[in-house]
Fold:
Amino acid sequence: MAAGPRTPRRARLTGVGAYVPERVMTNAELEVMVDTTDEWILARTGIRERHIAAGDQATTDLAAAAVRDLLDRTGTAPSDIDLLIIATTTPDYVFPPCAPLVGTMTGMDSVAAFDLNAVCSGFMYGMAQATGMVEAGLIRRAVVVGADTLSRIINWEDRATCVLFADGAGAVMIEADDGAPGTGVVGFDLGSDGSTPGDLWVPAGGTRTPITPGVPHADTCIQMNGREVFRFATRILVESSARLLREAGLTIDDIDLLVAHQANERILDHASERIGIPREKVVMNLDRLGNTSSASIPLALAEARDTGVLADGALVLMVGFGAGLTWGSVLARWEPRP
Structure:
């Protein structure tokens, strides 16, 4: 990517692609693996099934499939992409990052590419990065991917976490508007609170606690304080949404669709009630996909498009939250290419 003279533009959300692995794991399978029941999982999470990557699939494979779907649906040549951002917490390697590999896998020769990690909020941060680059005039077109293979870091003996997490990837197109009418990406609310990392983390595997023979397997997997994460999520969904709407001079009545991180049905129900948005405006697909971390919002957005819930010109409020603890909200008009 070479940056020429910068001309301010408006960034638009113009396309979405998706991919989930073929294998479906039902609650009935988990009943055999851990001390749980289908009824317990449904009551606590709202999840019935989830998709799990095959043994030979890694995060780049999922991400590349979502990118190909996006390029096909938007009729975009790989050479037309200036920037590729992949939000993930489960990269193929410590390094290199996933993004250059996915760029090569999808025909984006020499594309500017990098990963970012804000866990379940990562996709929101990626959209903010891409929008900033487009509106600064540095690039014309970016692809932002949320992709995670959480099945690789799940403790399948821990019923508190193994019933929740799954694998998948989603991708969106952010591009300059060329002066055409429309509201584009309206704004963001991003933030973090690093005071309680142990509420949701993988304790070992980084430079603080490298993986050694003496490190328990459970410490290399996701661990969660469910009660505290629930409190944080229900609070921050409301607060972040309210801040963003206030800054944009809008109210919840102006929103056509709420696409929030698909973490838990109780969290989404509680937060949407407090936000004051009708249930029919809330996208929810975690019953079939589970919690796919950074992929959950673009996957939900893609399903809303496929089912006709996402209408052209709809004003969409997207809200993510996750480990860190981090959060991010994005307000954007859905303006797909003809």
